[in-house]
Design a protein that fits this description.
168 residues, alpha+beta, three-stranded antiparallel β-sheet
Length: 168
C-alpha cells in the first residue's frame, strides 16, 4: 500500500478560502502549498485518548503514533465531509458527535497544512483499517511522559501541547 501522490487537494489561504488545487505529491514535496486537513481527538468516557499508529508505508512520519484520526480534505469536499469520511475510513466509526476545537497552520520542512481540529467522546467499537498500523487508548499521563521521545509525530506533540486545555 502507498499514498496516492496524484490525489488532488485544494490550496487555501489561512482562513480556508480555496485559491487553487495541487496534487498530494506537490503539496508534500517542500512546496509549502497550504492545504486543509482534519484531525479528530477521540476520547473514551474515562478520559483516555485514542492514538493511531502510522504504517511504515506512509510518506510522512511512518511508524509514529499520531492523532486519533487525521486526513486531507479532498478537492470538492467540505471540512465536515472530510472529517466524517476520514473517521469512517480509518477507525470504522460512523456515529459520533464532533466538537470543533480550533484551526491553525502547521508547517514542517516538507509541507504546510491548515489543520481543523475536532474532539469527541466515544465508547463504541473501533476497527482500525488497513490505512493504519493499529491503535490504542493512552492515558494523558502516558502521553505526557512520552512527549519528546520520538514515538509521536511532531504534529501530534505540538497540537496536544498547544490545545490540551481545550481538548480535555
Amino acid at each position: 500500500m502507498q499514498d496516492n501522490l496524484s490525489e488532488m487537494f485544494p490550496i487555501v489561504d489561512e482562513e480556508g478560502n480555496i485559491l487553487d488545487a495541487a496534487t498530494r505529491g506537490k503539496c508534500h514535496d517542500g512546496s509549502k502549498l497550504l492545504h486543509p486537513v482534519v484531525h479528530l481527538h477521540l476520547f473514551n468516557s474515562r478520559g483516555e485518548l485514542y492514538l493511531q499508529k502510522r504504517p511504515e508505508w506512509k510518506d510522512i512520519q511512518p511508524g509514529k503514533w499520531d492523532t486519533s484520526v487525521g486526513g486531507h480534505v479532498d478537492l470538492g469536499e467540505s471540512v465536515e465531509q472530510a472529517l466524517l469520511r476520514e473517521v469512517r475510513e480509518e477507525l470504522g466509526v460512523t456515529e459520533f458527535v464532533p466538537v470543533s476545537v480550533a484551526h491553525y497552520v502547521f508547517e514542517s520542512t516538507r509541507e504546510r497544512e491548515l489543520v481543523f481540529v475536532y474532539k469527541t467522546v466515544y465508547d463504541g467499537d473501533i476497527s482500525p483499517t488497513a490505512e493504519l498500523d493499529g491503535g490504542r487508548f493512552w492515558t494523558l499521563q502516558e502521553i505526557k511522559e512520552n512527549i519528546g521521545k520520538g514515538i509521536f509525530t511532531p504534529n501530534f506533540e505540538s497540537e496536544f501541547q498547544r490545545l490540551e486545555s481545550q481538548l480535555v
